[in-house]
Amino acid sequence: MFRLDGKVALITGSTRGLGRAMAEAMIAQGAHVVINGRSDDAVLAVAAELDLDGRSASGVAFDVADLSAGDAAIDTIVGRHGAIDILVNNAGINRRAAVEDFGDDEWRDVLAVNLDAPFALSRSAGRHMTAAGRGRIINTASIMGTVARPTIPAYVTSKAGLVGMTKALAVEMAPHGLTVNAIGPGYVATEMNTALVQDPEFNSMVVDSTPVGRWGTPQEIAAAAVFLASDEASYVNGQTLLVDGGMTTAL
Ligand code: GCO
Fold first, then answer.
1. Which residue owns the Cα nearest ligand 1 atom 12?
2. CA–CA separation, 232 vs 165, rounded Å?
3. Cα(194)–Cα(216) distance, rounded to whole angstroms?
4. For the whole model, what pTM was predicted?
5. CA 22, 187, 123: angle at the middle one, nearest 5?
6. What is the residue extent of each domain of the chain?
7. Which CATH code fits 8-189+218-243?
């Protein structure tokens, strides 16, 4: 079960963090994973590191906020590999400031990466998946698509938007053989959260308000992505799978 043999997956933002963990997990299940990030060097280095047998990983460097570059990347991947079976819209950024201090540029940057790019890439990949009659689109949302905390208004808005986009694409694309779902990670100790992990008060808040009693690991998020990408998830569509240790369940 949960094998991905013969599948071609593009995971945006996969040179580190959740995306890299997803890449490792999907490769272990037999997929060919296309590594993405903005840096050519990082993309090629991680692809080389994860390429177990000369067939497991390759790389396409582009900034997901550059929508035309994203469209071109999708065409390149299909040209090189004959298909794109799995798209994981994982690349994401966060900016933290009180609403009254939150800048227009910061707002635009977060929405561009976290929401505009997933839509544009899903539209491009969706064309190929529709032609093939199959495909999986998985969006890395967040518990912040469902709840909120102060100082991250753009991130919360972008992730709530991504949850909505997941539903919108799910109902339109499923008749063509695709499913579209999202993963809502809780607090995971990735580079994006280094400042939070190192903050004793914030760290205690996460541990105390998560029934499982700890931060999540990238591998626990990756396991959810493998499931949603697999044939076994063929009847899961339009859902956001929260992987948060129960944080959003607890009062
Ligand atoms: C923050 C964090 C969160 C987490 C993640 C939880 O500033 O509160 O960055 O947003 O990273 O989104 O899923």
1. 142
2. 23
3. 13
4. 0.98
5. 45
6. 8-189+218-243
7. 3.40.50.720
Mutate to test the pocket of ligand 1, among 16, 93, 146, 155 (most ligand atoms within 8 A of CB): 155
80 vs 60: CA distance, rounded Å: 11
* E strand or H helix at 135: strand 135-140
Residue 143 pLDDT: 98
Six-digit token pair at 150? 């102060």
Q: What are phi and psi of 59, to 5 degrees?
A: -145, 145
Ligand 1: list residues with CB < 6 Å.
94, 96, 142-144, 149, 152, 155, 185-187, 192-193, 196
Q: Does the pLDDT at position 218 exceed 90? A: yes
Three-state SS sequence of 71-99: HHHHHHHHHHHCCCCEEEECCCCCCCCCH
Residue-wise pLDDT for 80-118, tens only, equals 999 999 999 999 999 999 999 999 999 999 999 999 999
Q: Which residues pair with 184 in a beta bridge?
A: 242
235 is catalytic: no
